[in-house]
From TrEMBL:
Family of this protein: Belongs to the Nudix hydrolase family.
UniProt feature coiled coil, ranges: none
GO cellular component: cytoplasm; nucleus
Keywords carried by this UniProt record: Hydrolase, Magnesium, Metal-binding
Gene3D superfamilies: Nucleoside Triphosphate Pyrophosphohydrolase
Cofactor: Mg(2+)
Listed Pfam families: NUDIX
Record's keyword annotation contains Hydrolase: yes
Protein name: Nudix hydrolase domain-containing protein
Lineage: superkingdom: Eukaryota
Length: 198
């Protein structure tokens, strides 16, 4: 079952096609940031996916990646899970803010992934940069031409093997593999990496 989620209304403008009003800017600051029991920063994000209706296509699943803010490779949209939202709401909000796409989340999360933020201010914090990412698969229904972080990020649709190859972080590659196995499409992991932009 899929859920359609929207971001918090105070960050929105009045018009949209899917999932409520369009965001006008990204949330900033750590005032509402959630932390885990051991002090780790809790984040939420999505693997944005598009499934082709063409049964003749061997590459019928595409995955959206975005450039990191520093331009050091491709990543998934993710960010802080805040105290005024559920984990799926945070994942959907971060995805529209960073990648400019909206859609329906699968009910079951892909998984939880531990990573360490390399940002200096986090490395010197009490949690030493440790983060736990709660990742969801989002079936994209709307691709915005302009979104809060569009000036700082580029996005690219990839085949499954290409997304695994391009992902900057190993934990993100693991998240793709976990999701692909959950939908019983391990065959996609064996295909050659080729561009899947549609």
């Amino acid at each position: 079952m899929l859920k359609c989620l929207i971001a918090s209304p105070h960050l929105m403008s009045p018009t949209s096609l899917v999932g409520g009003p369009l965001p006008t800017h990204s949330r900033v600051g750590r005032e509402q940031q959630r932390y885990g029991i051991d002090g780790e920063r809790l984040v939420a994000g999505c693997i944005p996916v598009r499934v082709s209706s063409s049964s003749s296509s061997s590459h019928n699943i595409s995955i959206l990646l975005i450039t990191s803010r520093g331009g050091k490779g491709y990543v998934f949209p993710k960010g802080g899970w805040e105290s005024d939202e559920s984990c799926p709401e945070a994942a959907a909000r971060e995805t529209v803010e960073e990648a400019g796409v909206r859609g329906k989340l699968e009910d079951a999360p892909v998984g939880r992934y531990e990573f360490y933020s390399g940002k200096a201010e986090r490395v010197h914090s009490a949690h030493k940069g440790r983060c736990i990412a709660h990742m969801f698969a989002m079936h994209v229904e709307e691709e915005l031409s302009s979104w809060p972080e569009s000036p700082a990020r580029k996005r690219i649709w990839c085949s499954v093997p290409e997304a695994i190859q391009k992902c900057r972080h190993e934990w993100m590659k693991d998240a793709i593999r976990t999701w692909i196995k959950s939908i019983d499409r391990e065959d996609l992991l064996c295909q050659p990496a080729s561009d899947a932009r549609m």
